[in-house]
Amino acid sequence: MAVVEELSEARALLGELVSSASRAIVFTGAGISTESGIPDFRSPGGIWSRMEPIYFDDFLASEEARLEDWRRRFEMRKLFAEAVPNAAHRAIAGLVDSGIVSDVITQNIDGLHQRSGVPQERVIELHGNATSAACLDCGHGMGFDDAEALIEREARAPRCGICGGLVKARVINFGQAMPIDEMERAERAVRDCDLFLAIGSSLVVYPAAGFPLAAKAHGATLVIVNRDPTDQDDAADHVLRGSIGAMFEPLTVS
Fold it and tell me: Is there a contact between 198 and 38 (Cβ–Cβ < 8 Å)?
């Protein structure tokens, strides 16, 4: 493992690695979005240090938990709407457009990769997306404005207009099963890549955090780009530490 903290050196190495890759995968966590003004979940001062997560079983069992979950989603919607994709998001979108990056696997729920220009079909959202909702029973979609109106009118969490099931934001809560299709897509992408860029992730949340090590086991060069050390640094071929946006800025395609 080689740790690079000097910005110009990190930029140069990142450029070399990307230009020599034939099929790269990008894997992102909350750290890529903090520079867009979205706080992360696990660092000191992050979201989970200020409030306890709502578990999926609690959402199913408790109307109070459902209403609190929705209250948080509405707050996040405002935060996400005000956020703007940063240089790292834009650089990744350019790499996808150029064909160097085949897929973007993300733990984030903010939709900033899509807003930066990455096509939806190239984004694999392991933990869902906080910008839309769906019925847990039949899968019928519901917009946040409609959900908010139902809560105000009925004083309870929204129910599906088709089957009457509970409607929930398309976010994977603690204790909720990971999305099968997305996990399978990520596994296929990992098997086929020759460069795996893990960006802005603490790499502690499994099963998502298993993908960098799986890519390494399949022969890919593993690069970790993060502000702070991670538990997987020793397994990486290269570790780049510092501002993620600053490191990726020279790769940005305008």
Answer: no
